[in-house]
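Today's session is about reading a structure prediction critically. Students often jump straight to the picture, but the first step is always the sequence itself: look for stretches that repeat, for charged clusters, for runs of hydrophobic residues. Only then move on to the predicted structure, which in these notes is written as discrete structure tokens rather than atom positions. Here is the chain we will use throughout the hour.
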Amino acid sequence: MDDIRILAVSGLDALIAELRSRGYRVMGPTLRDDAIVTGEIRSAFDLPRGIGDEQEPARYRVRQREDGAFFGFAAPAQSSKPVFFPAEEVLWRGRRDRAATSNHGTSNHGTSNHGSANSDPGFTVERDHLDAQPTALLGVRSCDLRAVQIHDAVLAGRTHIDAHYVARREGTFVVAVACGVPAATCFCASMGTGPRPADADPGTGEPSYDLLLTEVAASNQDRHHFVLEIGTDAGRDVARAIETFPADFDDQHEALAVTAHAASLQTRSIDTATVHDDLRASAESSRWEDVASRCLSCTNCTLVCPTCFCTTVEDVSDLTGDAAERHRVWDSCFSEDFTYIHGGPTRESVKARYRQWITHKLSSWEDQFGMLGCVGCGRCITWCPAGIDITEEAAALGRMRADSLAPTGGAVPAASRRV
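Below is the predicted structure for this chain, in token form.
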């Protein structure tokens, strides 16, 4: 906390205006259709001021608050994932040139991979090149910020990058908000992903945020303000352009107390020290039959998860057959068709699909990418119609594994006896 200041409530609108004047598209939490979702923010008026939420297994409600807090809620219904990795996007477009076809024959087997250059005079393929406006994430929570960092590693940090993701992600300005009001389904504290964001990305060491806000809301409006911490030179430059006030040690302590209290309110957890091995050892556990009897295989958990990145492609054409497009759309490992190959799906049962999902999140993801694939946001619990709780399923598998390894009381094996 080398550079910490106070931002008045009125300064929040000035911050948004400053970011927009610098060419950023500001994306943050807003109220839509009785849910807090991520959308474009043009002024502080677009933020869900005075709105809180209630989240429990299979239950989500918004509610009115009395303190006028701008960020007095837990994780929004959807994370920041669609900002950089939308649910559907065009990969390429193709068009038949009938005039050229009539002049040069009807062959259309050749296509072009280089913009609109045409290797076949009868057919043109155009890749969808993004000229994305830089984004400012406003009010992004620690769990969702960590999920963006995970996507950076998965989609932009490997040999074959996701060009569309990189184009949208490049130049992002991050105004994070420390979480002060966790939901009953949150467990970020046990995952090490919140309620306060880490100063640096654990994978790259790069700063996690440009600016960090901790909202101190009170019924007395004179005490309602934001503790503002600066994480980068770009953040400092923006902070200098708006009105802020000096902060002291008490302000620093107040900011830390907000997130410490939020962590103490969380009742759910995952034991990150054991969950990787627990899941690896549980492939044949009878627990999978139990959870399969409750799971609807509806895909809700994967669609609201901020780190899931499974997709499929869909090809569409117009009625004339002259134009075609290839779309990339989100998919889910809970879909029976997700693993379909000739002859049928490789994971036919709900048991197999749920096992694949939770094992990937909490075990094999770490083997692939060196980190867990869960950030503790709790959305999969909130939006599961059956109220299935990933923390309880992981704990149950851990207990069953521990019971299987416990001594039975019989004779000590010869190899274990002391001589």
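Discussion point for the tutorial: Residues 88-127 form one domain.
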